[in-house]
Amino acid sequence: MTTISAAGSTLTQQLYQKLFDRLNTDGDDALTLDEISAVDAGNAKVSKAFETFDADADGRVTRAEMTPADTFGADTLNALIQAQSGSESISDQEYLADWFAETDTDGDGLVSKSEREASADLRRAAAYDAGYATGRVLMTRRGVDTDQPLSVDDFLVGRLIAIDPAQISEVPPELKAEIERMLDSSPEEAGAPSAETAAVQPSREQITADLAERASGPTGSVSFLSREIGDLRTAEAARIAAAPMSDALAARLFQQALNSWTPWDGGEQPVVEANA
């Protein structure tokens, strides 16, 4: 079987290549409509997705045709931020309704654990590819059994702390007291820090630089630090490679392709490996 390597590809590309492997039951180098229909036989959206993938209209979807462009992950997240979720022009209730409608892939009015995990997988891949996360997050209400299918009323919207770039000239006031405690506590107030503790305490300059980098993404988002994003992407690539692809995740990938597919443009392709 042929699979895509984590090296040389985005996480979004890796997900689509894993979907290709899942559907490629005869092990050849292309997918037929029958193979793709295994996601949801009889669904007109599946036939439409096949047409979307089949760029040369030859009745077969090759691995290259099922590889989104490098910008797909970032473009998708930007679209979510601006059009669906991150825009300040829509309310949290509208954000929640949009998220629920996309996540409920079987249309039964409930989102299963598998559907929620699929939504999280897609959003995490897009966020790590883009280098930032949106300011709004979905949470289950206290006391909800998250192993059970949930209705829209079982969720609420939370907020990440998005830092205004205008605050970065100095340490933001809401963090200043904590930074003072960390860096400037006197021995009388907090006890003298040990040499080991002092060695790992960040400097004021480092804290300010980190806050500035956190605020460097689009409005309403929080950027990942350059020193942490590589490890996050590597860990997520390993998790994707090891985890089986659920029906819910396959359905969400098809839905995402229908909404905003950007085909491979013929440039350098991701690294593809042959595995027994």
UniProtKB/TrEMBL annotation:
InterPro entries on file: EF-hand-dom_pair, EF_Hand_1_Ca_BS, EF_hand_dom
Region (Disordered): 183-202
Source organism of this protein record: Brevundimonas intermedia
Domain EF-hand, residue spans: 41-76
The organism's place on the tree of life at top rank: Bacteria
Alphabetical list of CDD domains matching this protein: EFh
Signal sequence interval, chain numbering: none
Database matches in Pfam families: EF-hand_7
Gene3D superfamilies in alphabetical order: EF-hand
Name the record gives this protein: EF-hand domain-containing protein
PROSITE patterns cross-referenced by the UniProt entry: EF_HAND_1 (PS00018), EF_HAND_2 (PS50222)
